[in-house]
Amino acid sequence: MAHAGKPSIDKKVLQYETFISDVLKRDLERVLEQRDGVYEKIAQYLQLKNTIESLKESETKGLKTEIDLGCNFYVQAHVEDSSKIFVAVGYGFFVELTHSEALKFIEKKTNQLTVHTEVLTKDAAKIKANIRMVLEGLRELQSLTDVPEKRMRDAL
Length: 156
What we know:
Pfam families: Prefoldin. By secondary structure, the protein is an alpha+beta fold. The chain contains two helices and four strands, in the order αββββα. A hairpin with a 5-residue loop joins β1 (63-68) and β2. α1 (2-58) packs antiparallel against α2 (99-141).
């Protein structure tokens, strides 16, 4: 009778291990990649903020810059009036804004993105907790209570 239970336990262990690797770890990677993408957007907006502030300080009308034509192919350009700029507001739309309007928009957008990163960080923590819970269930299922818990690398 004891031998009949062993294959079913092994099957359950395999199911839990598959669930961890196929579902939970994949979900964790997806959430962390999304969070990294949001961090990149925040960095781009902050870089734009620094550029706008340096433009305001220089008080020059003209500007020499490089423009990306696509596929990392850049051309030099001269902007005669840099008092207004086009800012990407999302979904492929650009809006012409003055420097002060752009700075206000950047402030609101970075605050919104920061809140989104906090949500994604909490989601990642929940997924990590689920992974730990399933691992603890596996440990109990296999009666491995004396084995020390392997620490997961903290990706936060």
